[in-house]
Amino acid sequence: MAQVVIGGVGDADLIESCGRVSSGSGVQLDTTALARLQKEAVPKDKHQPEAAGEAILQAPSYLTREQARAVIFAKLVTLVTGSTGAQPQLLSFLNELLAHDIVPQLPAGESDSAALDQLAATCRGEGQCRNSSSPDVQSLAQALQSEGCTCSGISSAERVSIQRSGPATCGVAALALFSNRKLSVLATAVAALSCEALQAAVIFPAGDEAGLAKSTQEIYNDLQGFVEGSKQVTSKRKGSSALQESIDHIAEVHGALALAQTHAASKLKPEMARPASRPDKAGHVGASRSLLGYLLLLARAALDAGRLSLVRLQALTATSPLLQDVQVTAGLKLQQAAESTSAASAKIDNRLDREGPSLQAALALSDAVSALQESLAAEAFAALLTLRQQAGPPVLQPNGNAPMEAAVTSDAAPKADKKAAKKKGKTAGPALGKGSGHLLSALAAAASGVSGEAAECINAGPEDTLVWGLLQNSSSSDLSKASRGVQDLLDPLKPNLEPLLGSLRSIMEANQARRRPKVAKGARDLVPAQMMVRQAAIGALTGVFTRHGAVAIDTPVFELRETLTGKYGEDSKLIYDLADQGGEILSLRYDLTVPFARYVALHGVSQIKRYHMAKVYRRDNPQMNRGRFREFMQCDFDIAGSYPPMIPDAEVLKVAAEALEQLQLGNFEIKLNHRQLLDAMMALAGVPASKTRAICSAIDKLDKEPWSAVRAEMVEQKGLSPAAADRIHGFILSEDAMNLRRQPQQLLAALSAPDHPFSSNADARTALEQLKILFDLLHRMQALDHIAFDLTLARGLDYYTGVIYEVILVGENVGAIAAGGRYDGLVGMFSGKDVPAVGVSFGIERMFNILEQRAAERAAAAGHKLRESQTQVLVASIGKNLQMQRLEVCQRLWASGIAAEFGYKANPVLKEQWNYAEEQGIPLMLFFGAEELEQGTAKIKIVSGPRKGSDDEVVQLSDIVAFVTACST
Q1: 552 falls in which pLDDT band (50, 70, 90)?
Q2: Do 233 and 350 meet the contact criterion of CB atoms below 8 Å apart?
């Protein structure tokens, strides 16, 4: 095995390294680190080794060989990276213990203390050990002498450095995580194999199933990858049972296991990497309580996975007495591990000191992982035998002698010969998924005692003669031998499992790549025809914005989560959060307004008129037919800065009206209200301030629900008094409010009357004064005709402070296609200095949908499909060897800014060229032959438009640019 280097810059994964060292790899101490330690060490003439002490000769239980090696490795990591003043010889001695596999007997107690006290005694040459040359316990001094190792002793200060707690827990925990990392992958593979053996129903939810955790979906993907191509598993449940329930929960339980592994590893790694401090300085004295909590959480997750495995194992062995003892042993080990975990958890809950039962927690995790391993190995072996039994007698005999070949009965061989003749050489047996089949082959080879190239010489799948022989004439010794072979293969600390997992991953990923691709829920691909419509619309909108003097900006697609938090009220739950990839907690932008406010604050902008078109993301329930997606384009126009009252507001509304007129979407209205007017209504109606936003959210539903439903929500769900709800009705649904909404100046006059309740409220008076200015400005801008003064508009976003508005298409059931308002306080959330701002956000996706639908209708009426390009001219030819001439004519058109194509075929047929021009909706086709070229002319056909079908026109090649330009105008 390759050595593990520690102490250098950019060390590898410490958990992986610990697992490798525990399995037998050696350690190489970084030379630079050793040189540093030599400089920092106490001078040799002042190094005073301690006198012999008392080694722990008896303990109720000891760490295993692998666990003890893990503890030594973890201690080495802390010493080599720390500044303890220890002699480098101490580290070299610990390294020699690993190199010669001299493993001290370290007590397995509640805390690190006993184990590290004994490790300190080991450094004095005291205690007992085991080593590779002798499995029996022997004197440490004897083992050191036989291996030629010398012990220079340790000083009292070095003893303190070794005894400081942490590494024993970290080492044992790292070893458990190293094993569990492999088992979490293996568990899904074995579960898939059992599903095949049981011919179970495995239901794979759609990728867009709501509420499915990421870790659960990943397990579903893995499970599907393993059984890809299987004819054993079904998609129809056969009633409910404990077995079916356990299969239904595979993804959830295994996903939780993988997630707990990730959390525990993220907490363990920094504790393992923490350098040891000088003995005379305060240092950490134990593993953190939060780490212990994560270790126990992982232990429970491993036990849950083990229990699911046990249910499947019971189903596999229900009709076979061969594995009853294996099943009982696996169940007993799971029960003992559960008791160990419960005991550790109870002791940790009752201890507040750092030197609590930390090692006990790591040992409980180790027991749980070991129990999971035992259960998976038993389940895999049972699945192997079950599938072999289902396959019937083998078709092909193995070449040469195999360990269990003699077990094949004389009756079985003729049957196999007959079946082979019937199948004409074809293999028989269950049709498994590729991943499951590969795992089964590996298990069969391991159970048969065949490995390496020899495994390829037998039909090491369901037709494996050796396993069939085990089923026909088994003995307890044969069964035990085969079971041990499977256990060894699936042992995370032995070398055979990693290559198997690697090959399973490759098969699984290849299977996933072959599945039919699909787009994520709430997203979509855009085809060229759609992009043509979108580009035209974007160009029209850009023209409106730039005509009003706006500038363009862009911001990142993701923001710090703190930037977006608290800006969207109830809609904050729809923000997409990203997994932490680089030390920052990030979220995808929910809209373009908050990033714009952050931009203004960050760059110290005092005045700006800007537009921004970009994609935003919302974790909403998409309604594709109504243009509601999770990823969609948004278009914003905003004016920020201090200006005379309501002038920016009026221009924003004018821009919104111009944009919609430019796009020719149809009749529209701009519903308008004022935030302060809403607050005044709430106050006058007796709505508590704490309920104002919730009640406004209910009011905002009046465009979709009747007043009775909204009132019921206010009273029954929001806790508003019936009298207050009725007073709200008197404001927002009064006769004037309903009849004069499209006559905003008349409604404003009615609301401003001295006898109206609004006259007694300062917020209402301010709002009405601002609206009077706004309506006068809009009247001058000839934009007032589109305004509907709607008191039921109560948009739920928290950051609006003044006018609010949304745009709807009259008679269209597509919802709001634009919305906005004044947000004077938003920028101040980032800079502490308010910058007044007002803007409108266009629901451009809904606009695009309408435009695409209408363009498709026009194209269908014209007899061609929706255009995908802006090509104006197709340059064609008649005859051979004219491709260069077509290219030269195209170049003239390109140079003049005319979109043209010439076709890539060297000698195209004229009919094909005409058909292409018709299908693509290209208006003109210019064509020529050798005769036309000699005369310097070309012919032009009108392919589409009012003049379609008219006679061909002959044009001089020198005049084609002018002719095409005239046709386009």
Answers
A1: very high
A2: no
Which residues partner with 346 through β-bridges? Answer: none
**What is 869-968's CATH number?**
3.40.50.800
Architecture of domain 668-810: 2-Layer Sandwich (3.30)
CB contact burial 194-209 (16+ within 10 A = b; e otherwise): bbbbbebbbeeeeeee
d(CA 109, CA 60): 8
pLDDT value at residue 668:
94
Mean pLDDT over 848-859 rounds to 87
**Going edge to edge, which strands form the sheet with 924-928?**
900-901, 873-877, 924-928, 937-942, 953-956
User: Domain 4-165 maps to which CATH number in 3.40.50.2300, 1.10.275.10, 3.40.1280.10, 3.40.980.10?
Assistant: 1.10.275.10
Report how far residue 364's alpha carbon sits from residue 368's, in angstroms, rounded to the nearest whole number: 6
- Strands laid side by side in the 631-640 sheet: 551-552, 608-617, 631-640, 837-842, 816-822, 803-809, 668-674, 787-789
Which tokens go with 620? 């909403």
Residue 658 has pLDDT above 60, yes or no: yes
CA-CA distance, 221 to 217, in Å (whole number)? 6
pLDDT higher than threshold 50 for residue 457 = no
CA distance 198 to 194: 6
pLDDT digits (tens, 9 = 90+) for 211-270: 577 888 888 888 888 888 888 888 777 655 788 888 889 999 999 999 999 999 999 998
549 sits in the region (left: phi over 0; alpha: psi -120 to 50; else beta) called left
> pTM of the prediction?
0.64
CATH fold of 526-666+837-862, please?
BirA Bifunctional Protein; domain 2 (3.30.930)
Three-state secondary structure call for residue 797: coil
Rg from Cα positions in the chain: 39
182-272+290-381 and 668-810: same fold?
A: no
Q: Is 235 exposed, middle or buried (0-12, 13-18, 19+ CB in 10 A)?
A: exposed
CB count, 10 Å around CB of 139? Answer: 13
- The domain spans of the chain are 4-165, 182-272+290-381, 384-514, 526-666+837-862, 668-810, 869-968
534: Cβ contacts below 8 Å, ≥ 6 apart: 526, 633, 848
Nearest 10 degrees: Cα torsion 375, 381, 386, 392: 180
DSSP, res 422: H
pLDDT for residue 675 = 92
Neighbour-count burial of 463, counting CB atoms closer than 10 A to its CB (0-12 exposed, 13-18 middle, 19+ buried): buried
Q: Which CATH superfamily is domain 182-272+290-381 in?
A: Fumarase/aspartase (Central domain) (1.20.200.10)
Q: State the chain's maximal CA–CA distance in angstroms.
A: 115
User: pLDDT tens digits, residue range 513-546?
Assistant: 556 677 888 888 999 999 999 999 999 999 999 9
